[in-house]
């Protein structure tokens, strides 16, 4: 398994978690719970951005290795 495929799996898991948190937020009337799930979804947005950034670096590194070979 490559780093890139591991990152893609992590990205899919983070996106799934974000979707779950959004669903939980919509399913409750408890304001405190809504706020908690909204905050958790926002945390996942940051995680998703960081994983996407790392995927870009890995892809660029692989491209650089291919062109220098």
Structural account:
This protein has 69 residues and is mainly alpha-helical. The chain has one domain. The protein has helices spanning 3-27, 31-68. The chain is rod-shaped, with a radius of gyration of 16 Å. The two termini are 22 Å apart.
Write the layout of secondary structure elements.
Elements: H1 3-27, H2 31-68
Helix pairs in contact: 1-2
Please write the string of helix (H) and strand (E) elements. Answer: HH
Radius of gyration: 16 Å
Strand content: under 5%
The oligomeric status of these chains comes to single chain
Q: Give the averaged pLDDT, no decimals.
A: 95
Largest sheet: number of strands, sense, barrel closure: none
Give the overall shape, derived from the CA principal axes: rod-shaped
Based on helices, strands and strand pairing, what is the structural class?
A: mainly alpha
Which spans have pLDDT < 50 for at least 5 consecutive residues? none
Q: In total, how many beta strands? A: 0
Number of distinct helices? 2
Helix fraction, binned, reads over 70%
User: How many domain modules?
Assistant: 1
* C-alpha end-to-end distance: 22 Å
């Amino acid at each position: 398994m490559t780093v890139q495929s591991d990152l893609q799996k992590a990205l899919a898991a983070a996106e799934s978690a974000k979707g779950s948190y959004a669903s939980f937020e919509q399913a409750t009337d408890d304001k405190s719970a809504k706020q908690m799930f909204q905050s958790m979804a926002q945390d996942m947005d940051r995680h998703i951005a960081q994983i996407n950034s790392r995927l870009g670096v890995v892809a660029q590194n692989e491209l650089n290795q291919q062109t220098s070979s």
